């Protein structure tokens, strides 16, 4: 999953969670506020009723005309029942019952009218506990109850007088529920719209964050693939802009480092060419002397037979081959990987290095395993590596000796080229220092030859292993993969 989509989903999930919590909180807050409002309204109704309650001959009655009761119900359509309970007899019967089905022809409903005018449809045994709590605490209590699958709200209001009592008002909860349902619908509509806006905003926000990262990643891929010096377009002043500037600085530094490395390789290459030139000149001068002699004979009218002409042609080809290899080594070339026959590459190297080997009384033997596949490499760089390694082997044998080159396949699709000499060898401390700049056992050595050779082999995704025993010889193993993976 792309980072942009992940950020968008995370941002949307956070917003949705916050909105859901807010909607839930608003719903329950509204529910509590509605309950409190209804409770206060019913307290007012109870107090108004209490104003008209009269006590006479141990009987409570409403000293108000019937139209007062009718108006009270018309102004509070949700009231289903009003009941009065006094402390002594509240567990048995109410002292006053008014419901929506009262016979309004009676001007003064009294306790004696209970059986005639009321039915106590909404009261139950649990109400006795609420009435006792109200009488004890003198605080209004409201509860939600269900009576015959009908949801109602009961409000118990304490009335303080010479003889305290409780008025119970039963409300139809449908009106409250309708208000809550409307509020919930409104909240979910707002929630849905907010989610849509959040998703859109989060997408653009994620895009704003991710696009610069994608651009930086593309430039880093270019740098990984060797395109040093590429720059990120920095148009922001935040942390991402700072990251882009750091990538640009890194790219430029790598470009300078690469240029320095290439200059170092060229310098070392020219040094090798210079060292080989003396032997090459000697190798060329001998056949040239023979050719000049033959040409003098021809100029004086001497006829040449086929054997002499074949010798002249062979010497010219020998000169051409040596100069071609020297020119290839010295000529600056762009690095390019292609399929190369490692056996042929080593033979070309021996064409140049055999001159120095012969001069130092060193014999080079090469053994190549059959059917070695071609490998992906830069031919010129590998030639420089093997010339350096063979030169070191030759120079390690002051009194001559043998160099054995063995090429064979390894199990993991790699080729190993082993170069074994019987020279002076090195101790463990000297082997560890190999590859450090300016470490060399030669009088005029710089130590850069092996360091650059190791670098070029690493550029080919390969490795160099050194095994050496003091006064016995050194074995250098160059391990190269068959293919070069240029992708991240």
From TrEMBL:
<feature type="domain" description="HAMP">
    <location>
        <begin position="207"/>
        <end position="259"/>
    </location>
</feature>
<keyword id="KW-0547">Nucleotide-binding</keyword>
<dbReference type="InterPro" id="IPR004358">
    <property type="entry name" value="Sig_transdc_His_kin-like_C"/>
</dbReference>
<feature type="domain" description="Histidine kinase">
    <location>
        <begin position="279"/>
        <end position="484"/>
    </location>
</feature>
<dbReference type="Pfam" id="PF02518">
    <property type="entry name" value="HATPase_c"/>
</dbReference>
<keyword id="KW-0067">ATP-binding</keyword>
<dbReference type="InterPro" id="IPR003660">
    <property type="entry name" value="HAMP_dom"/>
</dbReference>
<keyword id="KW-0812">Transmembrane</keyword>
<dbReference type="InterPro" id="IPR036097">
    <property type="entry name" value="HisK_dim/P_sf"/>
</dbReference>
<dbReference type="GO" id="GO:0005524">
    <property type="term" value="F:ATP binding"/>
</dbReference>
<dbReference type="InterPro" id="IPR005467">
    <property type="entry name" value="His_kinase_dom"/>
</dbReference>
<dbReference type="InterPro" id="IPR003661">
    <property type="entry name" value="HisK_dim/P_dom"/>
</dbReference>
<keyword id="KW-0597">Phosphoprotein</keyword>
<feature type="transmembrane region" description="Helical">
    <location>
        <begin position="7"/>
        <end position="28"/>
    </location>
</feature>
<dbReference type="Pfam" id="PF00512">
    <property type="entry name" value="HisKA"/>
</dbReference>
<keyword id="KW-1133">Transmembrane helix</keyword>
<keyword id="KW-1003">Cell membrane</keyword>
<dbReference type="Pfam" id="PF00672">
    <property type="entry name" value="HAMP"/>
</dbReference>
<keyword id="KW-0808">Transferase</keyword>
<dbReference type="InterPro" id="IPR036890">
    <property type="entry name" value="HATPase_C_sf"/>
</dbReference>
<protein>
    <recommendedName>
        <fullName>histidine kinase</fullName>
        <ecNumber>2.7.13.3</ecNumber>
    </recommendedName>
</protein>
<feature type="transmembrane region" description="Helical">
    <location>
        <begin position="184"/>
        <end position="210"/>
    </location>
</feature>
<keyword id="KW-0902">Two-component regulatory system</keyword>
<dbReference type="InterPro" id="IPR050398">
    <property type="entry name" value="HssS/ArlS-like"/>
</dbReference>
<dbReference type="InterPro" id="IPR003594">
    <property type="entry name" value="HATPase_dom"/>
</dbReference>
<keyword id="KW-0418">Kinase</keyword>
<keyword id="KW-0472">Membrane</keyword>
